[in-house]
Amino acid sequence: MYEIYCDGASRSNPGEASVGISILKDKEEIDTIKKRIGIATNNVAEYLGLIEALKYCVEKNIMEVDISVSYTHLTLPTT
């Protein structure tokens, strides 16, 4: 089973921003993504962290994954 943990932050709000993503398979980290995204708000950085995680899943054809985000205002529909 894959697990992805993603986060985004800005130095000030808005300010220099980055995203960080950790990808695990069977509880072992197999990859990371670290990316500077330029000037952005904290909210934008959080959303872009999730988008980068989803892009990774598409590129690697990962269909079953648990994704955890640190941003409490980020809500997605579930089925």
Task: Tell me what you see in this structure.
- The chain has 79 residues and is of the alpha+beta class.
- Helix content is 23%, strand content 48%.
- It is built from 1 helix and 4 strands; from the N terminus they run βββαβ.
- The chain has one helix at residues 42-59; strands spanning 2-10, 15-25, 28-40, 65-69.
- A 4-stranded mixed beta sheet has the order 3-2-1-4.
- Strand 2 (15-25) and strand 3 form a beta hairpin.
- The longest helix is centred in the middle third of the chain and has 18 residues, at 42-59.
- The radius of gyration is 13 Å and the shape is elongated.
- The mean pLDDT is 91.
Topology:
Blueprint: E1 2-10, E2 15-25, E3 28-40, H1 42-59, E4 65-69
Parallel strand pairs: 1-4
Antiparallel strand pairs: 1-2, 2-3
H/E element sequence: EEEHE
With strands numbered from the N-terminus, the spatial order across the biggest sheet is 3-2-1-4
Shape: elongated
Query: What's the Cα radius of gyration?
Result: 13 Å
Overall pLDDT level: 91
Number of helical regions: 1
Number of strands: 4
Please identify the structural class as seen in this structure: alpha+beta
Query: What is the end-to-end distance?
Result: 18 Å
